[in-house]
Design goal:
alpha/beta; Aspartate Aminotransferase, domain 1; Aspartate Aminotransferase, domain 2; seven-stranded mixed beta sheet; three-stranded antiparallel beta sheet; 12 helices; globular
């Protein structure tokens, strides 16, 4: 098998998570909504423990953890779920950035069609929005600011701390898509000024099909979200359906391990990045993303003279990499993230995203380098 270097698309699963999922699928298979017997009670207790494990990572309360199917659903619930409040209050202005995941941009586009107005802010060539630009865009009728924490294609951290501080005296709701940062960039997401946080299980070495929306109370009030689906009233009435107990338990364990081990994981990933840069230097790569604000497990590079599609084909059997977001790779369109960074069409068409983690096997960077060099001959 090739070395897996596409951890930003999905990650391998921690062994303790796998063991828990098997146990709560095969042995502890009760429905957490069943009140009349011990099977249901144990399932509910397991889900509540998972909430506690997740809330501890972001310093939230148990009741502020809403289980969803993943960060995409959480993004939709955070944005579309505020639409009724916007219509009621007359606040129909939304602020976001041009590099957001489609799970944020498309719900906002939908609301624009319903009469809302959106300010979509540019980023600099390093892939970072200016905090001052976000704060300057806030108006009296602004309902929501939505800015991702870490970009999924470039690994660039956005100035979430500065934006949160700047919104301290504002009643605007602040949503952060933390699919790529939850459990990895700890301190920022503990800010009490972030009202809504989207989390995905399969990006932190947990299972696919489960995520969380953290919906914090500000004072005594929670963001007035409305559900996107109906039929059961689970998750404080915001997300109906039978709780997938094995997945929730798996996410809880993954969150707890991530919180405990994030420093050693960061160290390991930093070492891998350094080795990658040293070995791939022979290819004269062009690095995309502000090096002062990039996370240690992502490398987005263009290799002059080497088409990205040809590179990925040449590496089959050696390494599994991508040329952007897995959610939009089927479309073969130029990356909207790299376009927003004002890269040339040639730079975008040759761009590769390489992402790894603490569970990644030893990487033969030399073999990767040699396979790519052969494309230039």
């Amino acid at each position: 098998m090739p070395t897996y270097l596409d951890c930003n698309a999905t990650s391998p699963v921690e062994e303790k998570v796998v063991e828990a999922i098997i146990r709560f699928t095969r042995d502890e298979y009760g429905n957490a909504g069943s009140r009349t017997h011990e099977f249901g009670a144990r399932a509910k207790q397991a889900v509540q423990k998972a909430r506690d494990q997740i809330r501890a990572v972001v310093d939230a309360e148990r009741e502020e953890i809403i289980f969803t199917s993943g960060a995409t659903e959480s993004d939709n619930l955070a944005i579309l779920g505020l639409a009724a409040e916007g219509e009621k209050s007359g606040k129909r202005h939304l602020i976001t950035t041009a590099i957001e995941h489609k799970a944020v941009l498309e719900p906002i586009e939908h609301l624009v069609k319903q009469g809302f107005e959106a300010t979509i802010l540019p980023v600099d060539r390093g892939g970072r929005v200016k905090a001052d630009a976000v704060l300057s865009a806030v108006r009296d009728d602004t309902l929501l600011v939505s800015v991702m924490h870490v970009n999924n294609e470039t690994g660039v951290r956005q100035p979430i701390d500065e934006i949160a501080d700047g919104l301290a005296e504002s009643d605007v709701y602040f949503h952060v898509d933390a699919a790529q940062s939850f459990g990895k960039e700890i301190s920022t997401l503990r800010s009490k000024r972030i009202d809504l946080i989207s989390v995905s299980g399969h990006k932190i070495y947990g299972p696919k099909g489960i995520g969380v929306l953290v919906a914090r109370r500000r004072g005594y009030k929670t963001a007035p979200l409305q559900p996107l689906m109906y039929g059961g009233g689970q998750e404080r009435g915001l997300r109906p359906g039978t709780m997938p107990v094995p997945l929730a338990v798996g996410l809880g364990i993954a969150a707890e391990i991530a919180s405990k081990d994030h420093k050693c994981r960061t160290k390991r990933c930093s070492e891998v990045r350094q080795k990658a840069l040293e070995t791939l230097g022979a290819l004269q790569p062009i690095l995309h993303g502000d090096p002062d604000h990039v996370v240690p497990h992502v490398l987005n590079i263009s290799l002059p003279g080497i088409d990205a599609e040809a590179a990925m084909v040449s590496l089959k059997g050696i390494a599994a990499i991508s040329n952007g977001s897995a959610c939009t790779s089927h479309s073969y369109k130029l990356s909207h993230v790299l376009e927003a960074m004002d890269l040339s069409e040639d730079e975008i068409s040759t761009a590769l995203r390489i992402s790894w983690c603490h569970l990644t096997d030893e990487i033969d960077w030399g073999a990767i380098r040699d396979a790519l060099l052969a494309l230039r001959r």
